[in-house]
């Protein structure tokens, strides 16, 4: 007697590898985290966190040999600020979170030492961290910013000049501390910058993270904020202006991992010129333990000319029904013609009206920096961008 063996159509293993053990990651928190580059598979550009990135142009940062760049930082003096270097095998390294992609792990394994900035002042201090002494050689860096309990500090990271850099910035916010970290990218036109900002916020701590990306050929800054203490607050804001051929990417992750936590995410960008590309991915995870969470994320893009592309992907994952609120929004489009008409009715030309709308659109984020000198400089840089644009 012959027995007919049947199987479900489409259930056979494919020829592309270990199909049975390659189920996709079901939740953002399950993404691989490791300081070992060998733990990450080779990047093909099809992965969920690389699919919008020009990976061929940053291959040397993902897999290549890297120079260390910790000495390239210039850090201003302020009360309650201590700066030192620590070895990467120290227990002080990794408290902000381990790498979540191959480029970050490559930097982690080759940088050797981390630059550690400790903040202890209870009275608000401002620390300026400048970096402008890099080269076009593939480079690794690692910076730790640690805010002691009850401290209050603004740290501004200014990136200028040329670069071919992959780095991790760890941010540790102690109980009841207030910390604002501002990362400004005003690189030269040929610069490449890939950065992971990993943050943990303790009980009743407050982190405001601001990214402003204007210069550079390829800039990819990914903040990952973990609200691990009850009552922790995390805010992530961003402003960017992409020109022809420029790739500006920001992947934001907010992890609500304690009760009564709060988060706000707002990124705004303008694009002009053929091939200008902006990518924003916003992941918010509200875990089962995070009862009482209040969260909202949004991304807004203004396309000023033809030939631009803006990818905007908000993701919201909720594991508990006991929340105060959660939502997300994403828009990409041209000018609001009613705004333009209103300004024209006040005697302002159409071109100038369009420029005013862009300035106001981005300045909503830039004014959060709280440093008048830097805000004025960034506004001047945006004005210079607009001078080159045909906004009719």
Mean pLDDT: 90
Work out the helix count: 5
| Coarse shape | globular
Into which percent range does the helicity of residues fall?
10-25%
Q: Structural class, from secondary structure content?
A: mainly beta
- Major sheet, described briefly? 10 strands, mixed
Low-confidence stretches: 1-11, 13-23
Total strands:
19
The total tally of domains equals 1
Q: How large is the radius of gyration?
A: 22 Å
- Tell me the β content: 35-45%
Distance between the termini: 80 Å
- Topology order in helix (H) and strand (E) letters: HEEEHEEEEEEEEEEEEEEEEHHH
Question: How does the SSE layout of this entry go?
Answer:
Layout: H1 59-63, E1 67-68, E2 73-75, E3 81-87, H2 102-110, E4 113-119, E5 125-131, E6 139-147, E7 152-161, E8 164-173, E9 178-187, E10 192-201, E11 206-215, E12 218-227, E13 233-242, E14 247-256, E15 262-271, E16 277-286, E17 293-303, E18 309-318, E19 323-333, H3 337-345, H4 350-366, H5 372-387
Parallel strand pairs: 1-6, 4-6, 5-7, 6-8, 7-9, 8-10, 9-11, 10-12, 11-13, 12-14, 13-15, 14-16, 15-17, 16-18, 17-19
Antiparallel strand pairs: 2-5, 3-4
């Amino acid at each position: 007697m012959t027995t007919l063996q049947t199987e479900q159509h489409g259930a056979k293993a494919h020829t592309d590898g270990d199909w049975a053990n390659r189920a996709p990651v079901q939740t953002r928190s399950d993404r691989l985290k490791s300081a070992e580059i060998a733990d990450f598979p080779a990047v093909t550009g099809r992965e969920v966190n690389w699919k919008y990135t020009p990976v061929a142009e940053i291959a040397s940062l993902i897999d290549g040999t890297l120079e260390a760049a910790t000495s390239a930082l210039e850090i201003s003096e302020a009360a309650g600020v201590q700066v030192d270097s620590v070895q990467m095998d120290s227990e002080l390294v990794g408290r902000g979170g381990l790498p979540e992609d191959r480029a970050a792990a490559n930097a982690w394994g080759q940088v050797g030492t981390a630059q550690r900035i400790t903040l202890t002042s209870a009275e608000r201090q401002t620390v300026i961290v400048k970096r402008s002494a890099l080269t076009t050689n593939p480079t690794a860096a690692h910076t730790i910013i640690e805010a002691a309990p009850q401290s209050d500090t603004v740290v501004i990271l200014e990136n200028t000049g040329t670069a071919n850099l992959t780095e991790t910035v760890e941010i540790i916010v102690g109980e009841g501390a207030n910390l604002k970290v501002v990362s400004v990218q005003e690189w030269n036109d040929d610069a490449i910058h890939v950065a992971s900002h990993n943050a943990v916020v303790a009980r009743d701590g407050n982190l405001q993270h601001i990214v402003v990306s204007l210069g550079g050929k390829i800039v990819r800054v990914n903040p990952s904020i973990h609200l691990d203490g009850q009552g922790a607050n995390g805010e992530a804001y961003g402003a960017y202006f992409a020109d022809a051929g420029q790739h500006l990417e920001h992947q934001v992750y907010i992890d609500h991992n304690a009760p009564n936590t709060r988060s706000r995410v707002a990124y705004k960008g303008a694009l002009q010129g053929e091939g200008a590309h902006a990518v924003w991915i916003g992941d918010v995870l509200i875990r089962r333990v995070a009862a009482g969470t209040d969260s909202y994320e949004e991304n807004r893009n203004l396309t000023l000319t033809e030939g631009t592309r803006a990818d905007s992907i908000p993701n919201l994952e909720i594991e508990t029904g006991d929340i105060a609120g959660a939502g997300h929004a994403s828009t990409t489009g041209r000018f609001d013609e009613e705004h333009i008409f209103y300004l024209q009715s006040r005697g302002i030309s159409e071109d100038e009206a369009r420029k005013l709308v862009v300035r106001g659109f981005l300045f909503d984020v830039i004014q959060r920096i709280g440093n008048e000198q830097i805000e004025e400089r960034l506004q001047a840089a945006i004005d210079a961008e607009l001078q080159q644009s045909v906004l009719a």
